[in-house]
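Q: Got a minute? One more chain.
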Amino acid sequence: MRLPDHQASMSKPKLYLFLALLGAGLALLITLIRKDVFTDDRLLGTLTGIMTTLIIISATELIPELARWIGNFSRRGKFRALFGEYSFREDARLVFPYRFIDKNKVSEDPFSTFQKVPSENRPVPEGVVNWLAFQDIRAAVYVSNTLGEMTGRKAVALHDKDVVADPKNYCVISFGLGFTAFTHYVEGLFNPRLFKVEWENSPKQQNVFTDSFSIGNAIPSIPEIPKGDDIAMVARIIPPKQSQREAPRVWFICAGRTAPGTAAAGYFLAYRWDQIHKLYQKQGKDLASDSVVIVLRHRENQGDRSIDIAYEYDDSVKILEINGSPLVNWGKTHGD
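A: Always. Here it is, folded:
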């Protein structure tokens, strides 16, 4: 699984060593400022050379580390603002659709789910070919890696059937669209709707009835996107506060019209979250009260199924733009 390059920080023993060298060099410098204590010019010159060497060596190693630390500190501050204070206080919750075997429907519906779906046309999760969608797991790995790196906390996996309405003070990241109950719960928090789960015939495969989504009053169309691409969405949700004194909670929905779209949405949230932060800044929105859904475009083709090879195209994901503007929708939950 390809992951973005990560610049590792200096190990603590090495850091302490160079800090000690820098301290020794500065101590010598302070001593040499009072050079009247030395009567031997040769000794003074030797100590000056040692002092200069210690400071140059330590500074050469410590300055890049200081720049990395400052950069990470600034980036971590933006991450905290986007993902919410609770992402640093508590382990995040990753929510997946619960699929189970219904012995009464084995011959007709292999993908029974906790979330009730339309009975007509027997909708199926397009792109899911295994009981556990590995694309959902891929998305979760991306997100949990970033959460661990930025917050130092773990991520806890849950099924949607185990998430009670109005979860408590956690950062929640939910994966999946029409077959995930948490997505439907979040959908109902807005009036007018921030987004809406739709059920329609697949635009790519005949005789497949599946889930999709709309924002505003229309399902996003992608006439500008080449064949083989598709759309997905990332929604950042600010649910109503449980009390006025608490910090805002932040939830996310990562979903695609196909299973590869969910993986792409997870990749975008994990490694391109700063683009969401920039959208808030550019459009003058409040990170503490405004929710947003962002339509993404990604490469849908997952390889040659005839030989069962799956390629990762998650990193192809980007914000879908129409006439040069990002396709997004803003809203506030009930009570805000």
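A: The helical segments are 12-33, 41-83, 86-89, 134-151, 181-187, 259-271, 273-282.
Q: Perfect, thanks.
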